[in-house]
Amino acid sequence: MKRLAIFLLLLLGGVGVAFAQTPTAKDKAAVQEVERLERQRFEAQVKKDYAFLEKVFADDLVYTHASGKQNGKTDYIQSIRDGKSQYEKIDVEALNVRAYNNGQAALVNGTITITLPPTADANPNLAHLKYVVVQIKDPKKGWQVVLWQSQKQAK
Question: In sequence order, which ranges of 48-153 are alpha helices (DSSP H)?
Answer without folding.
Answer: 50-56, 73-81
